[in-house]
Amino acid sequence: KTVYGANVIVFEGILAFANKELLKLLDMKVFVDTDSDIRLVRRLQRDIMERGRDVAGVIKQYNKFVKPAFEQYIEPTVQVADIVVPRGGENFVALDLIVQHVHSQLEKVSQGAALASAHQGQPLPKTLSVLESTPQVRGMHTIIRNKDTTRDEFIFYSKRLMRLLIEHALSFLPLKSVTVETPQGTMYEGKRFHRQRITGVSILRAGETMEQALTAVCKDIRLGKILIQTNLDTGEPELHYLRLPKEISEDYVILMDSTVSTGAAAMMAVRVLLDHDVQEDRIFLLSLLMAEMGVHSVAYAFPRVHIITTAVDKRVNEEFHIIPGIGNFGDRYFGTD
């Protein structure tokens, strides 16, 4: 099982350092050392009280199997440890050092996020494509941004924008030149999409509203869904549900969300796709509206992902809403506000 959204992952076990590939992934390796007499006493207490064994049998097993196995397989791994902690949980000095180191590592991660946010006000990344703001597009934005727009009108004009956005995004897929014969017997030089599959993945719930526009223009397209919600206590995105089509690694993936403010949910969704072996430059992130912060964050973390939207707004407020924005798209679309 893959874990997403965790700031700290603790991997524990007596053979935790046995796998060399796993060792490469660990930021800090801690060996908790316990006196051999204490280990024997603990085993005696457990096996006699909980397993109904006698003292002689426990000691015989300890000397014949447990102690030799510890000396051969576990004790030598202390050499790869960054910190050796004697007395376990009673060693408060060692625990404080470990906690301080974890905090310092988390600060480095937050500094990377701050660096992405610092790009605000800078030129937008080249991987971003914004639908041309024609009078028609601007007119539809005026309607869906208006707080007094009825739900029926909001849905209707949102769907129109989604269709235009999908069509615009498809123009970035690789096409090859082909020649076909017309009914009049003349030749026409045209374009055709390569035979690789296209898969649509929506970030629930609001991203699901874009599926209809995608299926309307892409015949027999496969669909996947990702549910990512923000933890109200930590402010961090959390993955709650994932369903992707099989053998997605070679597909061009259109990742859909209605709005992107900070980019946190979008970045987690991209990370999920990459962990399923989708190539980064084959991921197209589509959204009706994005904030500059979200655009820069996604582009900073994943510089080869294509970012496509109908408009980019300047700011995000304290509640992480896009300003001037569109309101809560899901609530307005589904009528749950």
TrEMBL record:
Pathway: Pyrimidine metabolism; UMP biosynthesis via salvage pathway; UMP from uridine: step 1/1. It is an enzyme of class 2 (transferase). GO terms for biological process: UMP salvage. Keywords: ATP-binding, Kinase, Nucleotide-binding, Transferase. It catalyses: cytidine + ATP = CMP + ADP + H(+); uridine + ATP = UMP + ADP + H(+). The keyword DNA-binding does not apply. Transmembrane segments: none annotated. Residues 133-336 form the Phosphoribosyltransferase domain. Its EC number is 2.7.1.48. Residues 2-93 form the Phosphoribulokinase/uridine kinase domain. GO terms for molecular function: ATP binding; uridine kinase activity. Pfam families: PRK, UPRTase. NCBIfam families: PRK00129.1. Belongs to the uridine kinase family. This is uridine/cytidine kinase. It comes from Falcunculus frontatus.
